[in-house]
Design goal:
Blueprint lengths: L8 H5 L7 H28 L15 H49 L12 H29 L4 H4 L5 H7 L5 H18 L8 H23 L4 H26 L3 H23 L11 H15 L18
Length: 327
């Protein structure tokens, strides 16, 4: 995610990183070069004609179709970008829910899980066991956030989970295809074991189960976005229409615009190609592109919050943007 503090209008005007130009510049170069060639041919053709000759440039097209297609294409691009932004915002909303659900689950664990009254004294073996249980559940909740991030980005989470889970459990996760789900399963087993030992009251079990269900629903919502892209045919059609429109545009305006055709084509193509690229960038919000969601920053924030709930003082720092990009 691009993070800039109070950017001025002038700085935004010349911003390059994250603007889409990194991917569209070569397309703009091709379209502009074609318009320069068309303009040069038109100027040469016009210069060779006589004053009384009012013949039309043979490579010129009527401007009317471009006006009609341009309006329709703008509407289609708007619809597509709205759909892409809805996916982006839903992904951010789900990760906001994950932050809240992780905090809630950790708070429930540290306040509702208590040793039996007979062994509730401070420093008693039962109290030490409950404290170990609380720490294990909170660390597994942190592991779930990191595992979900790696799962959505198709990266390996095991190296990061080594510092949060017992070695035997990490080894078991190595054979899982859905590691976040396996971590949730482990959390469920931990809650069940605590209930059987009397650390969680009968009427508190549905509370823990509701939190685990919410975490599962959040993962399912993220997987729905990741595994269901916008219809391929729709994206292909828009890419083709934008490309043909920009390539044919010089032939449609050269008769009226003349030597200014390359500049006009550059501006119009930048708008259409930029909107087309923007839809591609935010369609998949869980990647590492500068305009994608900062999942690393969010999962690090979850880890810091939950470790402090355990009373830890030596916690990692919040991630900072690198060259104005927070991943």
């Amino acid at each position: 995610m691009i993070v800039k503090e109070n950017p001025t209008w002038f700085r935004l005007l010349f911003s390059f990183r994250g603007s889409g130009l990194a991917n569209t510049w070569w397309r703009l170069a091709v379209v502009t070069a074609l318009s320069v060639v068309v303009t040069a041919v038109y100027v040469h053709y016009d210069a060779t004609g006589t004053d009384d000759e009012r013949r039309r440039f043979p490579l010129s097209l009527s401007l009317a179709p471009f006006a009609v297609v341009g309006v329709a294409l703008s509407i289609f691009l708007g619809f597509r970008n709205n759909a892409s932004y809805e996916r982006y915002w839903e992904g951010r909303r789900l990760w906001g829910q994950l932050v809240n659900a992780a905090r809630t689950f950790a708070r429930q664990t540290t306040t509702l899980a208590v040793p039996p009254l007979a062994g509730a004294g401070v420093g008693s073996p039962a109290a030490a066991d409950v404290a170990a249980f609380q720490r294990g559940v909170v660390l597994r909740t942190i592991a779930f956030a990191h595992a979900l991030r790696h799962h959505l980005r198709d990266t390996d989470p095991l190296a990061e989970l080594d510092a949060l889970l017992p070695p035997a459990e990490t080894a078991e996760l190595a054979g899982q295809r859905n590691i976040p789900l396996a971590v949730l399963q482990s959390l469920g087993r931990q809650v069940q074991a605590a209930w059987r030992r009397g650390w969680i009251r009968e009427y508190h079990v549905p509370v823990f189960e509701a939190s685990l269900t919410e975490l599962t629903a959040i993962q399912g919502g993220c997987e729905r976005i990741k595994n269901t892209p916008l219809p391929f045919a729709y994206s292909v059609l828009l890419h083709q229409l934008v490309a043909f429109y920009c390539l044919l545009l010089p032939f449609g305006i050269v008769q009226e615009v003349g030597v200014m055709t390359p500049l006009v084509v550059l501006l119009i193509s930048h708008a259409f190609l930029g909107l087309d690229e923007l839809g591609d960038e935010i369609e998949e919000p869980f990647g590492t592109h500068p305009n994608d969601l900062p999942l690393s920053g969010l999962s690090r924030a979850i880890e810091i919050n939950l470790r402090q709930l355990l009373g830890e003082r030596d916690v990692p720092e919040f991630l900072r943007p690198v060259r104005n990009v927070l991943t």
